[in-house]
Amino acid sequence: MTAAKPEDNEAARHIARAAARLFARKGFEATSTREIVEEAGVAKPTLYYHFGSKEGLAKAVLVEPLAELSGRLEAILRHEPDPIRVLERVLDAHFDFCREDPDRSRFFFAVGFGPPEAGVARLMECRKADLNDWTQAAFQCC
After folding, report:
1. What pLDDT does 136 receive?
2. What is the DSSP string of 103-140?
């Protein structure tokens, strides 16, 4: 089973929100699938049906949204001619990402700036590099 995007259906969104809350509060490694399904109020097979594994869930919660943010930053830099407007739009994109799902953002910052967590940190390394590259490019164009 490949990981579902949380927006695919309400059950997946609900599980993803519950997981983001727990991952943000306790960390990925310290959060068990049992805790996630209890928080979400679903059966364990439902989590596995939608995401395949806890790692698949983390990927859907964090890595895929980071890829979308990176794509948004790239589009801004490629299509916006005004350097000041580039900076404004890049900052807006980052703030939008944080406002869309505050728990997901806390999870991102905990992984990005906290001690390395073997599984999830490796999952998001290339996305972190992309975000860093596009954000630096925005600041350098001004």
Report:
1. 81
2. HHHHHHHHHHHSS--HHHHHHHHHHHHHHHHHHHHHHH
SS3 27: coil
Structure tokens, 102: 């505050």
87: Cβ contacts below 8 Å, ≥ 6 apart: 138, 139, 141, 142
Contact between 11 and 50 under an 8 Å Cβ cutoff? The reply is yes
User: Which residue's structure tokens are 């953002």?
Assistant: 105
Task: Quote the pLDDT of residue 42.
Answer: 95
As a whole-number percent, the residues of the chain with pLDDT over 70 amount to 88
The Cα angle at residue 91 between residues 115 and 139, in degrees rounded to 5? 85
pTM: 0.77
What's the longest Cα–Cα distance across the chain?
Answer: 51
